[in-house]
Write a structure and sequence with these properties.
It is built from no helices and twelve strands. The chain has about 120 residues and is mainly beta. Strands 1-2-3-4-5-6-7-8-9-10-11-12 form a twelve-stranded antiparallel β-sheet, with no helix packed on it.
Length: about 120
């Protein structure tokens, strides 16, 4: 079944596309050079502060948030509001988690295809 969306023109000139799965995208305008201002997934996760196609910030339904840093070597670092850090290779569904650092400094790595770490270094 194809995905569809309704367009809603807002008073400030932005346009919200509301998809049938409950997700939405806020665009700067209806013009061909419009850019994404915010995306909300069906679970309520919000991505904002886009730099091209990549978000700069994320806010999760539980109220936690994070900032993305795009590194020169192609890796992406997500620094969460609780102090944890996830480093990934690339973005989107093809991204692979390289390391996860907990707020107390434990570093998990060598993730398998199911997302389970194969190694941990404990902060002392």
């Amino acid at each position: 079944m194809p995905l569809w969306a309704d367009f809603h023109d807002l008073p400030d000139g932005t346009v919200r596309m509301t998809f049938d799965d409950g997700s939405s995208t806020l665009l700067s305008s209806r013009s061909p050079d419009a850019h994404v201002l915010m995306q909300r997934t069906e679970d309520g996760t919000e991505f904002s502060d886009f730099q091209g196609e990549n978000p700069g910030q994320v806010r999760f339904p539980d109220g936690s948030s994070g900032e993305y840093n795009y590194l020169a070597d192609g890796r992406v670092e997500l620094v969460l509001s609780d102090g944890s850090v996830t480093v990934m290779s690339g973005t989107g569904e093809d991204a692979v988690i390289l390391t996860q650092t907990t707020p107390d400094g434990d570093v998990y790595s060598q993730f398998d295809a199911q997302g389970h770490p194969g190694h941990v270094e404990f902060h002392q």
